[in-house]
Amino acid sequence: MNKQSGIHYLREHREAASSKPVPAEVSRIRETVVAGLGDLLQGAFDAVDDSLFELANNARSNNEQNRYFEAMREIRIKRKGVERHFQNAVAQLFATPPHAGKLHDDSQSQQAASADSLSLVGNDDLEEQVALNAMITKAKAHFQGPLLQLQTRFSQVYPEATEESPVNPMAPEHLCSAFTEAIQVLEIQIRERLILLKQFDRYVVSNLGMLLDEANRILIQAGVIPNFRYHGKTGQQHGGSSGSTSEQPDQETQTHSRTERVAADSSAVLEQIHQLLALQRANAGIPPRMSDPNVQIVGDRELLNLLSALPAATPPDPGQNLSEGEPVAIDLSAVVQQVLAQVDTREGKKPALDEMDEDLINLVSMLFEFILDDYNLSPPVQVLISRLQIPILKVVIKDKSFFSKSTHPARRLLNSLARAGIGWSKSDDKGRDKLYEKIHSIVQRILEEFDGDISLFETLNADFEQFLAKENRKASLVEQRTRESERGRIKSQKAQETVDRILREKLQRYRLPETVHSILTNGWSRVMFLAYLRDDVEHRWQETVKVVDDLIWCLHPHQEDAERDQWVRVVPGLLKTLRAGLEEVSYNASRLDEMMGSLKHELAEAFRNSQSGGEIQEEPAAAEPPEAEETTSDSSQSEDAAIAEYVAQIDAMEIGGWVEFRLVNGASFRCKLSAIIDEADSFVFVNRMGLKVIEKTRVELAHEMRRGRLTLLEQGALIDRALDAVVGSLRSTTA
User: Fold this and answer.
1) This prediction's pTM
2) Nearest 5 degrees, angle CA 629-CA 634-CA 640?
3) How far apart are CA 593 and CA 453, in angstroms?
4) DSSP for 114-145?
5) Rounded to whole angstroms, how far apart are CA atoms 182 and 180?
6) Where is this region: Disordered (predicted)?
7) Is 665 helix (H, G, I), strand (E, B) or coil?
8) Could you tell me how far CA 564 lies from the centroid of its own chain?
9) CA-to-CA distance for 40 and 411, rounded, in angstroms?
């Protein structure tokens, strides 16, 4: 690791950072850590620069592009100062380390970040605080073992540290706080600030492991608790004196920490929901299940054995398509009660589940209630997923991590099915649609084959992802061709509209000779059209417009000698440019000489009229009545105000987002936003095969949304959205 970049600033402010003497063994750690963090931070800033440049390159408007370029400039200018501030702050942490609570005790921080307290914070500050909390929580969970060892060893080194108030200068919350303090000087908006925090997390916080290990190694060499023992139940740390080597206890501790971390991650969401449901039971006056002497608790394994004998859901009629009919939520509690009735109890006790298993069953029920009420799912796919209620219940009872692990095979499969089915419309032919057939076959296999082995979901998901990748490749190629074709067509349309408008504005002001009018509208307009399309490459568009202005000017009589001299200089080049342009577009080659001869005659007549004082006639402009103009303006302002909120939603749409259009006759179809062509204010939508289905302007889309004929579809992971809805519902009912 290159330490020069970090040590440079450390030495520059050594006196400020070391106003208080630090233990000798800590000084070496400080130099290593400050240098290492300096190198990691450089990588983070480089990544931020790349991210902002890419965002600017893909910006949909000049204002958005300028915003990202300004942020890049601001960060580049102040980058060195931020790096210096951060490294000095880190060095100061070793001089006066703040006291911290124990590693596991996050109750206070969770309380501080509760919904009630955060509701008082500004939206931007809230977003930043949420990002920081997530970063710190992830780091403390990921590096729990090394952090715990380091905290224990630092608390031995620093004389002011106690068991109740341990210290750890390298705790993630302290390092993140030092960074947020350092970036306060950056005058950037919240989106760019979140990008900065994301890259800090990716390049600095996520790589703390090597620095934590090095710090532990240095302290071990110094004889600070070389043999580390951690007893998780009591929360106490001891320096062992046994004959085992230091490496073995460290390895045991890391293995133990990983196991604890997985268990904690798996139970966090469940614990939150369990507490909310427990609060509901308490509010309803229901006593704890374990305290009831007349109840016999049925364990997980026994319950799973009972459920394994339960038949999976079947279609309404044997042989009928699984997606026929309406999605129906199964009363899972009633199903389980029927199963429990088969339990042979002792002494006449009533069989029952413990609260956690009962909560799991209720949670599965609420999950499917959300799924069956989720408008974002197309109805046929919704019906198919509803058939999986019993299998998912069996999965959850066997493996409770379904709700807390986003990588759980069954959860991934459900998310994949929902994500793939979002673009499926009622109008699609189910009998011949490969995607529908694939989803149907997956659901059918689960119903027929699932016997408790969760690896079936993993196999089906891998097969489905492979199928989707193949289908998406074909659709992407078609969509790319559609997008390019539409861009070309819309640009051509825009070019023609621009040419027609400019010529109309210029020619309607004057009564020009018929020959000149014909050359400009039937010939030179094609030259202008091609120049508009090629302007990014050849930059001739303004030249073609100037030819029109010069020709009209030359047809005016000119009395002044200077103007007549200019006329003599301009006309030869003008005629040459006109002929070259018309020849390039193959304008009526058989009559080109005749037309150019007529044009020369008109120009000569205009020059002679200069001597007689003749003047080209200007067409009077038609004046619109003031009342009509005022009425039009008022109507336009009223319309803009009515659709303003919908326009904001349209502007927030992203490429790849799915929507549903409803027609006047009640039919509907789903499509994906494929391209936004700013120069034509055009939004192009394609179906899931990549073929264009509709094109509308921003205002047209806002009107469609206002009339209730356009709905934006959510594309987040199905289970994540369902859990958010369930937790929100529980919080509102227990409030």
Assistant:
1) 0.54
2) 125
3) 86
4) -HHHHTTS-HHHHHHHHHHHHHHHHHHHHTHH
5) 5
6) 1-23, 231-263, 609-638
7) coil
8) 64
9) 35
Return d(Cα 93, Cα 77) in angstroms, integer: 26
Q: For residue 341, give every residue at least 6 positions away whose Cβ sits within 8 Å of its Cβ, in sequence order, or none.
A: 351
* β-sheet bridge partners, residue 229: 238
What are phi and psi for residue 677, nearest 5 degrees?
A: -100, 100
For residues 435 and 398, the answer to whether their CB atoms sit within 8 Å is no
Contact 310, 339 (CB under 8 A): yes
> Per the structure block, which two tokens stand in for 600?
């020369």
CA distance 42 to 5: 9
Nearest-CA neighbor of 266 among 399, 398, 145, 143? Answer: 399
Using an 8 Å Cβ cutoff, are 454 and 410 in contact?
Answer: yes
Q: Please, which residues bridge with residue 237 across strands?
A: 230
- H helical segments located in 452-585: 455-507, 514-518, 525-533, 535-538, 541-554, 561-584
Helix spans in 534-682 (H): 535-538, 541-554, 561-584, 592-612, 626-651
State phi, psi for 296 to the nearest 5 degrees.
-110, 120
Question: Which one-letter amino acid corresponds to residue 306?
Answer: L
Please count the other Cβ atoms lying within 10 Å of the Cβ belonging to residue 427. 10
Report d(CA 74, CA 192) in Å as an integer. 11
CB atoms < 10 A from the CB of 489, how many?
16
What angle in degrees, to the nearest 10, is found between the helix axes of 190-203 and 24-57? 130
How far is 520 from 526, CA to CA, in rounded Å? Answer: 9
Contact 156, 224 (CB under 8 A): yes
- Rounded CA-CA distance 47/142 in Å is 23
Q: Is 713 helix (H, G, I), strand (E, B) or coil?
A: coil
Of 172, 169, 168, residue with least CA distance to 201: 172
**Token pair belonging to 681:** 């204010």
As a whole number of angstroms, the distance between CA 444 and CA 707 comes to 39
Q: Residue 97: what pLDDT?
A: 83
Whole-number pLDDT of residue 19: 46
Which amino acid appears at position 224 of this protein? Answer: V
Return d(Cα 687, Cα 334) in angstroms, integer. 42
The CA distance from 590 to 716, in Å, is 64
pLDDT digits (tens, 9 = 90+) for 280-321: 777 777 766 655 667 777 777 777 777 777 665 544 444 456
Pairwise CA distance, residues 95 & 535, whole Å: 63
Q: Which residues of the chain have pLDDT under 70?
A: 1-22, 99-124, 228-272, 287-293, 310-327, 345-348, 426-432, 610-638, 734-735
According to the model, what pLDDT value does residue 710 have? Answer: 93
Q: How far, in Å, CA of 587 to CA of 579, rounded? A: 9
Residue whose C-alpha is closest to residue 59's, from 192, 199, 222:
192
Q: In a 10 Å sphere around its CB, with 0-12 CB exposed, 13-18 middle and 19+ buried, how is residue 6 labelled?
A: buried
What residues contact 661, with CB distance under 8 A and at least 6 apart?
668, 669, 670, 671, 694, 704, 709, 710
User: How many other CB atoms sit within 10 Å of the CB of residue 341?
Assistant: 10
